[in-house]
Amino acid sequence: MLDGIIALVVGVLLLFFGKRLFWLAAALVAFLFGWQLFGDLLGPVWSLVLAVVLGIVFAWLAIKFIRFAAYIVAFLAGAAALPLLMGAFGVDMSGLILAGIGGAIGLILVAVAFDWGLILITAWAGASAVVFGLQKWIEIDDSLVATIIFFALLILGVGWQASRRRKN
User: Fold this and answer.
1) Residue 31's closest CA among 107, 129, 101?
2) Counting beta carbons within 10 angstroms of the beta carbon of residue 164, is it exposed (0 to 12), middle (13 to 18) or buried (19 or more)?
3) What is the 8-class DSSP label of residue 141?
């Protein structure tokens, strides 16, 4: 239940404010990645502590070295989001393989178009986290419903962030 609520909150922040508050997006993506990575290994308390530490480190990196941090965050966002997304859709594949594929997609997006890559990857990670959170919190079991929610949120998040981009 708690992991669903945390995923929902983090997902909404990434979905709507990922590019604008990149330091926060970096912290949240690192938090999600660490929480997902350490969750099964160390239990809920230690995974939460390590995820928070990882988030703080990445927030600092994003403030000091934005380009470098953007590539790392893009990789981590893709690596965290794709396994969550595929799991939500019932795909049973190695998490490590999915993480590698997702990380590569994230890197490519940011390398090709920096601003749009950040918008897409933060919205993607946010939509994935929200779908995961909804599945944990209110137990959405239907993969078609999860798919529709994911793509609706992705479009909404990209649209929202893009509209804010033009105003800056």
Assistant:
1) 129
2) middle
3) -
- pLDDT > 80? residue 14: yes
Number of C-beta neighbours around residue 99 at 10 A: 21
State the Cα–Cα distance between residues 92 and 31, nearest whole angstrom: 24
Yes or no: say if 154 and 123 are a contact pair by the CB < 8 Å rule: yes
Joined together, the tokens standing for residue 143 give: 């993969």
Give me 10's structure tokens: 């983090």
130-145 pLDDT, tens digit per residue, is 988 888 777 766 777 8
Q: Are 105 and 84 in contact (CB under 8 A)?
A: no
Helix, strand, coil percent values for the chain (each to nearest 5): 90, 0, 10
CA distance 139 to 12: 18
